[in-house]
Design a protein that fits this description.
Blueprint: H1 2-14, H2 17-24, E1 26-30, E2 33-36, H3 37-49, H4 56-77, H5 83-95, H6 101-110, H7 115-136, H8 144-150, E3 159-170, H9 176-186, H10 192-202, E4 217-218, H11 224-231, E5 242-244, E6 247-259, E7 266-277, H12 282-294, H13 300-304, E8 313-318, H14 325-331, E9 339-345, E10 350-361, H15 369-395, E11 398-399
Antiparallel strand pairs: 1-2, 1-11, 3-4, 3-6, 5-6, 7-8, 7-10, 9-10
Organism: Octadecabacter temperatus
Pfam families: Rotamase, SurA_N
Keywords: Chaperone, Isomerase, Periplasm, Rotamase, Signal
Length: 401
């Protein structure tokens, strides 16, 4: 704290009063809490160090609003991380960059990010993680049958395939409440024709032209935490709204079947994400279509990204449980070389051009069931956390002075 105060005092000595007042003036008000321009600038600088893609200023504003909402919930629950626990969490974060905590703080400082900014970031997110675990762990328990399902073992030598219809409704913050209300209404439908009509009207997915209808797909294509939800549906039933980044997803069950040849469980999924300015605007979609016409494989994207900032193209090989939920939902219906550009980041300002590179099947030997259990639990807790945060956001008063 002394370092931050000293740094601020030094900066203020060099500023004109007008600039200093502007820097520390309220930028956003979340209920009774204020976010300053200084905090936004600090978060932008930190996100840049983390190599975060997208519109960093918009993302910083979104994160800081969410941090204020999380802090309100934590304060209401009377939860606070100890100083020792916070220091340990900061050190753990630094190890991800193969640095000691002191080294990491030095790197942050060289980029203009104060230790206090990093400390606040870790304090909120670690405390929130612990709060979600304590509040929802009983509801998110993982059974042996859940693990079997995740491993694709429940059918023995056979495999389960599902026939679904899908909808994703864009829901950037200004439209979130309206999108959630629409999703809640659609979730009550039991008619396939009614669901198809809604898909044509509100879905952002390419499948909207087919009323959201998908072909038969292995259940293992879907995130492990979603499989049980899908298999619990009767024909015609619709899932509860599934919150995703800047959107909400729904699925309707049209059929389930067992096939004799088991589809291998993917141990890892390789995909590429190319970030395009403009979100779902006409300009953004035109650029996405132009890129789509130029690429047949993920390797082709390197040519498209030549000369652009390094973080504009991201290519990952990840276990399914580590893939962001909205990305995983879209990848579920893609084969290698297929693309999708319906997801967004940074409050809808950045369009995500997704391309499936391929799936690596699990070998099936030496499977660690406890690792699978932990992954399923983590994914379920994330779903609860996203839903709670969406509720907090819908009930909050957020103003931009």
């Amino acid at each position: 704290m002394r370092v931050l105060i000293s740094a601020i005092a030094t900066s203020l000595a060099l500023m004109t009063p007008t600039f200093a007042t502007a820097q520390f003036a309220p930028a956003i008000t979340v209920n009774d809490s204020v976010v300053s321009e200084f905090e936004i600038d600090q978060r932008v600088a930190m996100l840049r160090i983390f190599r975060t893609p997208g519109n960093l200023e918009e993302l910083a504003r979104e994160q800081l609003v969410e941090d204020r909402l999380k802090l309100e919930a934590l304060n209401s629950a009377g939860l606070r991380i100890t100083d020792e626990g916070l220091r340990g969490a900061m050190a753990e974060f630094a190890t991800r960059a193969n640095m000691s905590l002191d080294q990491f703080i030095t790197v942050l400082g060289q980029a203009g990010v104060s230790e206090e900014t990093f400390r606040d970031f870790v304090r909120v997110n670690v405390s929130w993680r612990d709060y979600i675990r304590s509040r929802f762990s009983d509801r998110a328990q993982v059974s042996e049958a859940d693990i079997d399902q995740a491993l694709g073992q429940s059918g023995g030598s056979s495999s389960i395939e599902v026939l679904l219809s899908e909808i994703i409704i864009p829901a950037p913050p200004p439209r979130a409440q309206a999108a959630i209300a629409t999703a809640n209404r659609i979730a009550q439908l039991t008619s396939t024709s009614a669901f198809e009509a809604e898909a044509r009207r509100v879905s952002a997915l390419p499948s909207r032209t087919r009323g959201g209808r998908l072909d038969w797909l292995p259940i293992t294509n879907y995130p492990a935490g979603l499989r049980g939800v899908l298999l619990d549906l009767s024909p015609g039933e619709v899932t509860a709204p599934i919150p995703i980044t800047n959107g909400v997803a729904l699925f309707q069950m049209r059929g389930v079947r067992e096939v004799p040849s088991a589809a291998p469980e993917p141990a890892a999924i390789e995909y590429a994400a190319f970030y395009i300015a403009g979100g779902l605007s006409d300009a953004g979609l035109r650029e996405a279509a132009r890129v789509d016409a130029r690429v047949d494989t993920c390797d082709d994207l390197y040519g498209v990204a030549r000369g652009l900032p390094e973080d504009q193209l991201q290519r990952d090989v990840l276990p399914p449980a580590e893939i962001p939920a909205d990305v995983a939902l879209v990848l579920a219906s893609l084969d290698a070389g297929e693309t999708n550009y319906t997801l967004t980041r940074a409050n809808g300002e950045t369009l995500v051009f997704l391309m499936m590179c391929g799936r690596t099947p699990a070998l099936g030997d030496g499977v660690d069931r406890e690792t699978i259990r932990a992954q399923l639990l983590s994914q379920r807790l994330t779903t609860y956390a996203d839903a709670l945060l969406a509720d907090l956001r819908a009930a909050a008063t957020v103003t931009y002075p």
